[in-house]
Amino acid sequence: MEAPHPQGEAAAGWVTVEEWRGSSASMLSRTAVLTASASSLTSRRFGSRWGRIGSRMLGAFVPEGFPGSVTPDYVPFQTWDTLQGLSTYIRAMLSTQALLGAIGVGEQSATVIGATFQWFLRDLTGMLGGILFTFYQGSNLDSNAKMWRLVADFMNDLGMLMDLLSPLFPSSLIVIMCLGSLSRSFTGVASGATRAALTQHFALANNAADISAKEGSQETLATMTGMGLGMLLAHITRGHALSVWVSFLSLTVFHMYANYKAVQSLSLTTLNSERASILLQYFKECSEVLAPKQVSQQEHILPFWSSWRKLIRIKLPHEHVHLGAKASMLTHTDMLEIAKTRSHYENSNYLLLDKEGSVHIFIHKQATPADVLKSFIHGLVLTNLSQNGKSQHAEARRWMDDKYTTFISKVCIVQTSNLDVRV
């Protein structure tokens, strides 16, 4: 950039160049100024040498333009995620040591072919388990990233526990090894898929690839640290079964706590079935919509099968709505019911069937994502009216005609990013 001529240099001419570091105009910091004349060159650097070295080292672990290039929940999530990862790698040394001992490593009576065959069965079971898990739950991972993130780490804990138990039951060694591998295969699929969804959430500057790369650097550092600490702990506790179990269980409790805190810190801006239900319920009560962080505080992130609600047979509103029901499930009575209520769904690419306390949504083959969102909100409205004992289809249709457009407009305004529907 040019600046006014200093005294005595006007005739000769001069130029000044400034060096700035950053990824956007609002996140720049000046690092150096160079001034050249016909006879000399002067330079001035800003910031200490150690500060510049630290900044470059930090650049290997945080996205370019940090913190402005990521969402506010990136730091708390990564902090807790790194701590839980560190715990995992420490425990991995204990469980691997137990597993290797169980298959005969270090014993003269053990054969190479026997140990190889056992390890092969273990890996084969894990591969098949990953394929089956993807087949049954692959489409649900994106919309329920928080819950499946917890499930993934819980299954990893279970797999490590199986490895640690393997020496205690030599007659069932292969079965226990395969069960542990099966459990970890669920972890690999669920963790990878949910991580992709979270990376897209964190990226504010179309920098998902950069965030993913820096996540790899962070994980590598945590892995090296955890392996070192794990080897030290394995050496200290070797031959002391009680110390091994106390260390393993203590680290597991911390691991589960850190995972819960990591997931709890997330404020996702996408809509899934539960977040849509929370927004709708508040809008019906207050005619306003909640911010993503407020919605996150009300969200249930523990798996349904581990919650008390299953024991007392309580369902949340969105659990009464079944999106994308199959037409082949319809009975003659259902068809007659649809015939009576179809006038409420004219010019809509969906139909609703209120049956046995649940609302089944049938989507037309030409439905757009906007139609899918509208059908789900319509189903939630119908569910709420049915539970209150009021008129069902007619009143739900009336609410959709009067309030739906306003509701969606306010949701789009409040959300910090473009509305993304994952019901």
Strand content: 5-15%
Q: What string, H for helix and E for strand, traces the elements in order?
A: EEEHHHHHHHHHHEHEEHH
Helix percent reads 55-70%
- Distance between the terminal alpha carbons, to the nearest Å? 52 Å
Globally, the shape reads flat
Q: What's the main sheet like?
A: 3 strands, antiparallel
Per DSSP E runs of 2 or more residues, the count of β-strands stands at 6
Low-confidence stretches: 1-6, 416-423
Structural class based on helices, strands and sheet pairing: mainly alpha
Strand order of the largest sheet: 1-2-3
Q: Give the mean pLDDT.
A: 81
Give the assembly state of these chains: single chain
Rg (C-alpha, Å): 29 Å
Helical stretch count?
A: 13
Write up this protein.
The chain is mainly α. Helices cover 58% and strands 9% of the residues. The protein is built from 13 helices and 6 strands. It has helices spanning 49-58, 74-102, 112-137, 145-165, 173-202, 208-237, 241-264, 273-286, 292-298, 308-311, 332-341, 369-387, 393-414, and strands at residues 14-21, 29-37, 41-45, 321-323, 350-355, 358-363. The strands form 2 sheets. The chain has a 3-stranded antiparallel sheet, with no helix packed on it. Strands 4-6-5 form a 3-stranded mixed sheet. A hairpin with a 2-residue loop joins strand 5 and strand 6. The longest helix has 30 residues, at 173-202. Residues 1-6 and 416-423 have low confidence and may be disordered.
